[in-house]
Amino acid sequence: MKDFKNVLVTGAAGFMGSHLCERLVKSNFEVYGIDNLSMGRVENIAHLTVNENFHFIKEDLLNVHKLRNVIDECDIVFHFAANPEVRAALTNSHIDFKQNLMATYMLLEAMRKSNQMKIMVFASTSTVYGEAKVLPTPEDYAPLKPISLYGATKLGCEALIASYTHTFGLKGLVFRFANIIGPRLRHGVIYDFILKLKANPKKLEILGDGTQTKSYLHINDCLDGVFTAIKNFDGDFEVYNVGGEDQVNVKTIAKIVAEEMGLKNVEFKFLGGPEGRGWLGDVKAMLLDCKKLKALGWKPKYSGVEAVRLAAQQLIKELCP
After folding, report:
1. CA distance linking residue 229 with residue 224, whole number of Å
2. Which residue range is the domain that position 191 belongs to?
3. Phi, psi of 302, rounded to the nearest 5 degrees
4. What value does the mean pLDDT take over residues 136-158?
5. 74-127 pLDDT, tens per residue?
6. pTM of the model
7. Domain check: are 97 and 233 in the same one?
8. Whether the Cβ atoms of residue 204 and residue 197 lie closer than 8 Å to each other
């Protein structure tokens, strides 16, 4: 990062994007944040807009031609814009194609035509692995068989980035994230549980059978990992898993959220689902092998349970003032 001055962040007003922008601004980079605000929130970046090093642009990446001047000013793009809700494709199968795959293609095309920007840092996902038969799952696991449109389009984005690095001389750094949690999060199991218990403190309805077991990583640990990899990036294309060292099941998360809200004797009602998962396309068990990133000196500060508890505390303060 020492050789970069101007940075573009897509999805800047989203959960992860806003935390990323915050870190970059604090490190004195000139940050251009782009978001169409379909999922991102102005409140997430309000504290950054007073900083002269942060410039917010409300625009959709599908209109990337309008961003040509900004792209020509920047050295690197952190492409964090996407549809963040895996379940959305169940009712709108176009959303992942447009907001994930097509937007990434158009951004890569703009980078190809730019005289300046040549490096893309891409926010991918553990869902590209599908229901992996090897846990923890390493980056070289194969075959990759995503079971959701979200995972499929993210995998497609990875393939596009790899092809552009080979064909057009761009550079790509891909991060396959586990479940990233923390303040400003507005989707996912912790957020859902807080809202449900706020509405009904005595009963919590839970999708699936409660045994869904996954890796959870706090946003601070996540960004530490991202910047560790960037500092050591010296190739054309690289992929890193970024996740916690353990797993937490949904029932445990429900108990933690109830405890942090000061609630006792909450009735948990499990609604079931396809093979006990929350919805079609939901990967029931996930744990990433992060040895590759750890070899660079990174290690998460929080265990999965600690990360869930901390995120629950932070979100309760935001949602239940």
Report:
1. 9
2. 185-215+246-285+303-319
3. -110, 140
4. 97
5. 999 999 999 877 666 667 788 889 999 999 999 999 999 998 879 999 999 999
6. 0.96
7. yes
8. yes
